[in-house]
Structure formats: C-alpha cells, structure tokens
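Reply to thread "Modeling small-molecule complexes from scratch"

Following up on the discussion above, here's a worked example others can learn from. I took a protein sequence and the SMILES for magnesium ion and predicted the complex. Inputs first:
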Amino acid sequence: MKCIVPVVSGKGGVGKSTVAVNLAIALAQSGKKIALIDCDFYGPSIPTLFGGGKLEVDHEEKIIPPVKYGVKYLSIGFFLQNPDDAVIWRGPMFHKAQQQLFNDVNWGDVDICIIDMPPGTGDAQISLAQNMKLAGAVIVTTPQEVALADVRKAISMLTKVNVQVLGVVENMAGFTTSTGEVVNIFGSGGGIALAEKINSPLLASIPIYTAIREGGDQGVPVAWADREGTGKYFYQAALKLIEILDTNSTAGAEAVSIVN
Ligand SMILES: Nc1ncnc2c1ncn2[C@@H]1O[C@H](COP(=O)(O)OP(=O)(O)OP(=O)(O)O)[C@@H](O)[C@H]1O
Ligand SMILES: [Mg+2]
C-alpha cells in the first residue's frame, strides 16, 4: 500500500463513513487503485454502504477482499456471525485485529487505502497511528461550533502521534428546499474557517441531500449512482486529495507496517 489515509473526526455522525465510501469510489473512478478498510469495530458501516460483500481465501490462506465500484473493501462487520452483534474488545485485542485487516489480507497493488474510523480519539486512532505509517488524515466536520470543538481535539491527538492533516471536508453544509431556498441546518462556514485556521486545504463542502443518505442505505453510493449530480462533491475532494498526495513527498512514501 503506497498511502494510507484515515478519515477522522472528533464527533460521531458527521458523515465519516459516507465521505470515506464516496471518496474511495471517486478516487477509484479517477484512475487510482483503491482499498477501503472499515476500522469502526464498534459500529461498522461499510457492509451496509457497499451493499454487502463476500470474502474468499487464497492459497496462502490470506483473505481476498471483495471488489465493488472499483474499490477493494473490507470490514470487521464481515467477520461477525450476526450483523447485530456488538464487538466488545479491549485495547490489545483491538490492536491485533486492526493489524490483521492489513496483514492477513491479499490487498495486491494499492495506491491509496482509505480508512473509515470510529468517532473520537480513542484506541482505534492511537492503534492505527502506532501500527501503520500514515500519509495523513482527512478530517470531516459539520459546519457548527460544537462539531468543530470536537474536531480540534482530534487534530490535537493527530499532532501528538505525528499524523498530518491532508485536508478538511465540510459535510452537511446546507439544505436546498423545493423552492430553492438554502437552509443552513448545521450553520455555515465552519469548514473553511477550520481549514484556514489549521492551514490545510478544504477538499469539498458537501450539502445535505436525501440522495446521499438513500444511496448509503441502499448500498449504491452517489459517487457511483449520481456522479455528475450529488456525487460531484466527492470527485472534487478526490481530485484535490490526489494532487496533495502527489506533491507531498512524505505522504507518497511506501506505507509500511511499523509493528509486527
Ligand atoms: N451530505 C449528506 N446528506 C444527507 N445525509 C447525509 C450526508 N452525510 C451523511 N449523511 C447521513 O447521515 C448519517 C450519518 O452519516 P455517517 O454514518 O456517514 O456518519 P459517521 O460520522 O460515519 O457516523 P459514526 O460516527 O457513527 O461512524 C447517515 O444516515 C448518512 O447517510
Ligand atoms: Mg461511521
């Protein structure tokens, strides 16, 4: 894997999984070899957002990840017998399982590996920064102050573990009613303010669309189903991210597992 890029946020429910999935598809459709790993062990979303997936095993007993929309993807959700089971693990088990998602899988040639992270600044984030050499993180935030306050905590954690911020995605930026009026349900301008403050590019500002939610629930994300319409914001983010990774020498370095 050449670049590993987690999608993070201090706060839950801001759209990390939606951004991770659609960004991965947009990157793949823009010509990159893409892997997507769901590291949200407590609430895996990728199985739903990708409409399921079937694992196979190769002759070396490594897992072959399913491929859909041009993306190789894997989720801890595929290993739970019952999709409604909760994973109740402590730090070390969690650390090991995370490594296995990288090491026991036949990923083949991958340019960019997008990781869907759980909310917060806990075990998953710290394990990942210790396990892998990361190219940098994409931060997702909604525009209002309460989300931004949590995002600042996430950024401070990333700084402590030496992970740079590659860019900011502002999600749920506004809703356009049937009469054309834009309602800023979660406020406005927070994403760009944050990007400027931390001197990092704004990759995209994504409005609220019913189609984005429905595409996720139905397992056919808009970056695939509505590329020119509601999916276009993810292509904007993908193109900017490719440019950033191409010009960033440390980000382009071969990602290596730093723990066995
Ligand atoms: N731009 C958007 N427009 C409409 N709905 C959206 C948008 N972004 C996300 N959603 C919806 O909001 C809900 C939360 O999104 P998502 O699951 O991606 O958030 P998350 O940050 O990954 O949550 P968690 O912290 O629980 O992992 C989902 O139902 C998703 O479909
Ligand atoms: Mg999620």
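What I'd highlight from this example: Residues 16-17, 40, 45, 116 surround magnesium ion (ligand 2) (CB under 6 Å). Residues 99 and 131 are 7 Å apart (CA to CA). Questions welcome below.
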